[in-house]
Design a protein that fits this description.
single chain, alpha+beta, Jelly Rolls, 4-stranded antiparallel sheet, 8 strands
Length: about 170
C-alpha cells in the first residue's frame, strides 16, 4: 500500500531529508525525532535573501525565528550618534531573532544579508500551533530557548561591568 501523499512528501523528498538533517544538527532541535523533525520542516518557511537585502529592521515587530542554513547575515544597531554599528555576523548553522517566539516586541537590531543566504523561518503563529497540536515539539523548542537565554544572562552577569548575578 503506497504512503499517503503527505507522508511521501515529508519523508520521501530529498529536499525534506536535507532540511531535516540540517535542523537535527542544531542544538535547538537536537532532541527531536525523525517524525517530529519532518513535521517541523513542513511548518517552516524557507527563503533566499540576496546580498544587501534586509531581513528585518530595528524597530520592526518580531514575528519569526531565523535559522541561517547558508550565507552570512550581519546584525547592526543604531548607535547614539545615529550611525549603524555592527553587532555580530551570523554564520551558517546559527539562529537569530528568537525573542520573537516569546513576545512580539520591536526588533533591537537590523539584519542584512552579506551574501546570498538561505534561511528557514519559524513564525510565532506556527510555533503556537505546534504547541497546541504537537506539544512535545513545542516544549523541546521552548526548553532550548530558555537554556539559551539563561546562558546569555549568565555570560552578561559574569562579564566585567555586567549585571549583578542573582
Amino acid at each position: 500500500m503506497p504512503l499517503p501523499r503527505i507522508l511521501k512528501r515529508i519523508f520521501g523528498d530529498p529536499a525534506s531529508s536535507r532540511k531535516r538533517a540540517f535542523l537535527k544538527s542544531l542544538d535547538l532541535f537536537r532532541d527531536l525525532g525523525f517524525v517530529e523533525l519532518g513535521y517541523l520542516v513542513e511548518n517552516m518557511h524557507s527563503r533566499t535573501y540576496h546580498e544587501g537585502e534586509v531581513l528585518f529592521m530595528e524597530g520592526d515587530i518580531g514575528r519569526a525565528l531565523f535559522i541561517l542554513e547558508s550565507g552570512q547575515v550581519e546584525l547592526t544597531k543604531t548607535g547614539p550618534d545615529g550611525k549603524s554599528q555592527k553587532i555580530y555576523t551570523i554564520q551558517s548553522g546559527e539562529f537569530f531573532g528568537e525573542m520573537a517566539l516569546l513576545e512580539q516586541l520591536p526588533r533591537t537590531a537590523t539584519a542584512t544579508a552579506l551574501e546570498k543566504s538561505q534561511i528557514f523561518l519559524l513564525y510565532r503563529s506556527k510555533l503556537e500551533s505546534i504547541l497546541n497540536y504537537h506539544p512535545r515539539i513545542g516544549v523541546q523548542i521552548m526548553t532550548h530557548l530558555a537554556q539559551l537565554l539563561s546562558a546569555r544572562l549568565r555570560r552578561i552577569s559574569s562579564a566585567p561591568g555586567g549585571m549583578p548575578a542573582s
